[in-house]
Each structure stands twice: as C-alpha cells, then as structure tokens.
C-alpha cells in the first residue's frame, strides 16, 4: 500500500531515527542504516539527546548535517542538563523524563515511521505513543546492554510498553529475540535483523604469516565486555615470540589494560592506538593477520549484539578469534569461519591463538569462508534494502493526522 501511496503523491517516506548521541563513532551501524534509507529515497531525520558535530572529527561528515529531515535534540536546550536532572531526580526520573519527552513530542509528529535504536529509546517513544501524542509506527532495534542489563537485573519486563505500543521489535541476534519473546513480546512482532557491512567497500586480502612476524589486532571500545584483558593474558602465553598486537579504541579501561600488558611482560609488543578514523582502521586491518575480540558478559550484564568490527575483519580476509558469547556464534562457526573459545577461558583462547600461529596455510580457506559468510548473511546493502522495504510497508500504518 505504501509503495502505491508514494507513487501517487510523489512523496518520500519520512523516517525518524531516535538515538542517544549523533553522530557517534561507536555506532557506525546507525550511520550505515541511515545511509541505506537515503539511498532508497527516504527522507531521514534524527532526534537525539546530544549532537556531536564539531566534537568528533572521525564522524563529523557533512552528510549527517544535511539530512533532509534534520538533526534535532529531543529536549532542545534542556538536553544539556539531562545527566544532571537524572542524578537529581533519583527515583522520580522516569516520571520527570517522560513529562519532558511529552512536552517536546511534536518533534516526532511528522514522521511516517520512527526507528528507535536501543530499547531505552524505544521505551521513551512508546510512552509518548501510549499517551496519544504521536501516531507513527514504532520500530525498536535492540543491540546489547539494553537486553543484557535488564536480563541481569531481572527487569526485562520494563519493555512491556514497547511491546504493546510498538509494531516491530528488531533484535540484532536470535539470542535477544528469544529473550524478548520469553518476557512477553509477541513472536509475530519480533524479527531478527542483523547489522552488517558493505563487502564492496572492503577489499579481501589474505596475508600469510609463515615468513613474517604475526600481527594481531583488535578494534573496539575499551570496556569490560570486549574482553581485551583475556586477549592480553592469552597472548602472554603464546610460545611464538615474534608477534605484535595493535589495539584501536578508547575507553575507561585504557590505563588498566596498559598496566596489565606491562605486568605480563608484553608491553613492548602491544600498541594502544586510541580512537582512529574509519579509513585508517581499514588500512590497519589490511596490514594485520589475526583479529582478536574475546567478548564476555560484563558483571553489570552488558552484552554484545554481534560486533560489526568482527564482520569488517572477516570481510577483509583476517583470521578472526572470538568467544561463545551472545549472538557471535551466529556469525562465526568455530574452525569453519573463524575460531571461538569459551568466555574468560584464557587457556582455551591461548590454545586457539597458538594453533593459528603454527598453521597459517589451513587458516586461508577459513578466511575465504568467512568472507563468503559476510557476503551472504551480513551484507549491509542487502540488509538495508530489506530494512527500507519493511519501513516503507509500515509507513502505511500511520494513523491520519
């Protein structure tokens, strides 16, 4: 119905993304999905808590400034006080924030479809819909901590309002799908939608380490769930000594991880590079052999979805090593498209790395299979086309103004 409506009126579907910070280097999947919607003729706008234009040169792209639907802060000038208000209001935060959300809800009214990234933002929009302030269908994309945290606290039922007032829940993996259905979401309204990468923009390049130092690399935020501590501990056990390890990313654990590398006696072979532009990340991936990301469930419940960094590494021809965690086994099959070890099992992880170090030739067909996996199941071009089709169909559900 919506495709016909667009043809008759010659108007694009208006899709509004609700996110926290925009644009965000750690959420390139949001930027890629927005780009996909623009490519499919949609009018895209963003409502966020905070804009970062001029604050992060790595993603400060004119494309995001010039979105047809504009980028606006949900709370306007009051948004800068949001962290302070949250701290001050304590147990009354939900009521206070919802009241302010309702007051500024007009910023969402022109949308034909609203896409909330992360369950917390979906909950905010669902509360506004429940009170009749907006009528657009709501799609909520669940990524990681928005499921893992509530599972840890036994509060996943907080999303009941989302299930009742949204039209579609789109977890990024089947593990989250099962969790949402188990807590009350209708199976008919839960659809796994992977994030992905564009293989056409990532050159596949196999590099053997048979006659050169073995180069390991990780690209991630330096938080507990990324498991870099266990990568360092496993590498310290590696019998082969001609290796180096580059860690790209910033985060609260940087000083602690540097100290650990020093304590393990491997600091001279580990290079913490901090945040880097995406173009540089791609180049460093081309120059490395093995991508390591032994993700773990954090002690506060934070979980991975399926890390996009793993997808990029697989598309680029690296041998990938990760863990049996959350949705990662949906991407990596042990010894078929990469290598997996149990979470926090340093001995098992070290054994995987040692086998890889000694067997470069058998790793090449695994890398080829990994690239094919990305092309088949995690291709952002295909996924964005699917997402745009779903959003266009949902646009016909909007109640008349």
Automatic annotation (TrEMBL):
Gene3D superfamilies named in the record: Glycogen Phosphorylase B (3.40.50.2000)
EC number: 2.4.-.-
Domain Glycosyl transferase family, residue spans: 211-372
Keywords in alphabetical order: Glycosyltransferase, Transferase
Record flagged with keyword Glycosyltransferase: yes
A Pfam family the protein falls into: Glycos_transf_1
GO molecular function: glycosyltransferase activity
InterPro entries named in the record: Glyco_trans_1
Record flagged with keyword Glycosyltransferase: yes
UniProt family annotation: Belongs to the glycosyltransferase group 1 family. Glycosyltransferase 4 subfamily.
Descriptive protein name: Glycosyltransferase
Species whose genome carries this gene: Mesorhizobium album
